[in-house]
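Problem 3 from the worked examples.
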Amino acid sequence: MIIKQLAVPKSGDHSFQFRQDLYPRHQSIWHYHDEIELIHVIRGSGTVFIGDRIKGFQAGNTVMIPSHVPHYWLFDEDLPGEEDPIDCIVIHFLKDFGSSNFLKAPELSGVRTLLDRSTRGMFIEDAERLTERFKAVLSNTGLEKLFSLFSLLQRLPAEEPSYLISENYAILNQSDDQARMNNLMSYIRENYKHKIKLLDLAKVADMTENSFCRYFKQRTGKTPVQFINELRIAHACFQLRNKPMPLKEICYDSGFNNFVSFHKTFKSITGTTPTQFRE
């Protein structure tokens, strides 16, 4: 299976890449790239799949994804009815910025330490104070743009980021089945609110059930049931944060057949009950 390697477009005028996304058109594919990815969410919410972790995100969050770690961004379907449903600043850069000696300057020791520790990814929950720093990276030119990025990276450790990927996660060698994982992700995304049979997933992957289970656990670090349940709970968390729906309605809308199972799974994944989470 190849998890698609994406080539981030390069510019001869800059040592890193940057853009502002106002619509979720670049992210919904299971992929990896050579560059470190840094995303700041100004507007929008959803779920990010990264290595062996599934994590809900919302406005005010910042996420750093290490190089060569497969990931997939799933923005919530219930997007506001506006012309620009999301607003995300996206930055891609190589760890050494294309030069092995680039970060050896003493003044950049903090940036160097941050990047050395970033191999498990980072998640900053309350990062709204970083918005202006991200915007400066977009708007500045020449050396000021590069200095703005260094200033931003230097600031990240003070925001108390948490790790995303488990210590046991290992990046696997990629092989030659690019479509398989994306077909699976698309199928799960379209059907997680309904009952998904293991046999159906195995058919999508064109494998036997036993082979599929081994394959999926290798690629995601989770069993299919764990993966689907975490996606369902991420959806439930979105509903609890944003909609005054009764808990039982959220339970069924998230793909669970009974409230007891929903409550138990929710607490095991989030560490709290749905009621406590809403409060």
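Problem 4, a separate protein:
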Amino acid sequence: MATLSPSNSPKVLKHKGSSRRRALSHLPPYPSQESHDAALNAIRSFLKATTSYDAFPVSFRLIVLDTKLSVKKALQCLLLNGVVSAPLWNSDRSRFAGMLTVLDIIHLIQYYYRTATYDYAETDVETFKLESLRDIEKKLNVEPPPLLREHPSSTLYDAAKLLIQTHARRLPLLDNDTETGHEVIVSVLTQYRLLKFISINCTKELQHLHLSLRKLKIGTYITPQQSPDGSRSYHPIATASLDSRVFDVVHMFSERSISAVPILDDDGVVLNLYETVDVITLVRTGVYQSLDLTIAEALKQRSPDFPGVVICTASDSLGTLLQLIKKRRVHRLVVVEGERGRLLGIITLSDVLRYVIGEIAIGIGEEVAEQKPADDANSPSKAPPPP
């Protein structure tokens, strides 16, 4: 489990059920709000002067899936290429048809699990087409993902605003073929790619983002209270234990449109994190009954190269967090407190991007910003950080 910590180099702390690693964290003795705000404004100016095309890596590959493809073959394609999402293409109409994400597969699994056809899920998925996934969402009464798109020449600032306004984690970049007039999928801009681009190109500004995450109110934090049965509550964050069934967590993924759930012990200590990609690992061989496993049993089947769970404290700085994103692939951080690491909150890349762009700039309160979150946060509601 990787973490942020004041030390000369990352280290691994032994912890039952996981390992936790802490990265560099430096806070100046007298943090200045003025220098922090100036650095933030400089980053925003940089994004307004930079296009999405500029954020493309020097070399990359793009996986595009035809909507006529079966879900099983599409899933195999994602796994073989080491990606968790891909643009969809409607070959009948020669146009972009949205994105396939892990959450789509989660919805499909939940649909089969709830119906009498669950025992035949493996056979059905052999022929079930990607174009039918939206019908599953309607039957489950979950919000369909927004059909987003942007031009590669749009500014990163505008692209970031669109990501935040629609609660999306990725933004397809489309152009038009001048000869045929058809749409062309050029690339996909993710929140991670955008934040990493900032951390690489704004190193001077990052040095001044030294105010703590607690002070900046970045993330979702638990509201201290007890459940009706007297047990400890971690509202509004969805949590599970090692004894929880995989499907119970899958239900949380689908119902709340989230992509990860912290695994806690009886004292609220963070033991691990169960993610949507872990479910895909279980069902990739067609063993759908494995959803009845406990989380403890399912974690034993996790790939040995699992990168770990990134944790931090509310006292760590935004600059440190962005430096970590530059060094390794990070999708979320679990905020902990105390020596044992009790759960305090969760910080997603959406939270970080929302703060960097600014709530006024992205139009918080507008209708588009009130859509149900999709696959980016642990909870649709936000609780303030502890004092």
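Solution to problem 4. Confidence is low (pLDDT under 50) at residues 5-19, 22-28, 364-375. The first strand starts at residue 2 and ends at 4.
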